[in-house]
Specification:
44% helix; alpha/beta; 5 strands; Ribose 5-phosphate Isomerase B, Chain: A; single chain; 5-stranded parallel β-sheet
Length: 146
Amino acid sequence: MKIHLATDHAGLDLKNSIKNYLREKGHDVKDHGAYEYDAQDDYPDFIFPCAQSVADDEKSRGIILGGSGQGEAMAANRVKGCRATVFYNGPKDIITLSREHNNANILSIGARFINEQDIYDVINLWLQVPFEGGRHKRRVEKLDNL
């Protein structure tokens, strides 16, 4: 699967670990930055290109990171066709429902709230859970057609 990654300084180390992990699993990974630590960088500079790439290729997914993941998800969700869900180590049902009911194509991770080992389980789950369609399809289409 094609997976786009992006972060600001807060998620840099975790993003790099995720990138290596996904490549080892055989995924085609595109890294949209940040590429080096800069405490003054701005997450939209990395998130917007990542989100646009996901929107342009409906078969791809995106994983974005930040301190909380909140601002990054807000940025990604401004791009038509993106449906970002936020995860910062809450119940894994959030991950399942984000895929089954919302067809989330971007996972926004709060890097300050989850450790490296736990995130791999979350990512694997998120990549495996299919969209249910049905009554949820109509709702997702309304989001994408606004």
